[in-house]
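Risk register update: the risk of archive-format incompatibility is retired. Evidence:
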Amino acid sequence: MNKMGNAWRHFCTITYHKLLVMRECFRLGLYRQGVLHDLSKYSWTEFRIGAKYYQGTRSPNNAEREAIGYSSAWLHHKGRNRHHYEYWIDYALDGESGLVGMKMPEKYVVEMFVDRIAACKVYKKDQYTNRSALEYYESGSGYEKMMHPETQKLLETLLVMLAEQGEEATYLYIRENVLKKGMH
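Archived output:
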């Protein structure tokens, strides 16, 4: 693939992903988050890396990480997008525990949840099922252990509910129990 073709394909991929997340956020009443989701991916810092390492089957950030040992696009992205638990990693209040995950506001956990669904839909295409996001989470690198325990519990609850009860039941639960409770 040529560079211009990769740039166009990357643009189409991130735009499709953004539109999927926006649609799901709107279904849950998270209008502002839906509109603003992942806008940093269109910044030159992130976009040029996405186009350079575009493959179409996984995040270009993984390919950049393999090529140079880290992902500059990811470091930029996670520091600007509150729906990533990595955004919420800070020094522990006790002054002795080092870096730990802070509790995320529920509205950002919900955005993280729909972000994972959308990513699975983008990359798995016709192979996507309601179990895909849970399976991806379970096959993860284990870094999720940096998540605050309450954040992790909520995310896992939503992923399991999606896998076992489907989207409609999970979204109803989110609207009636998670977002009303958190008063997003």
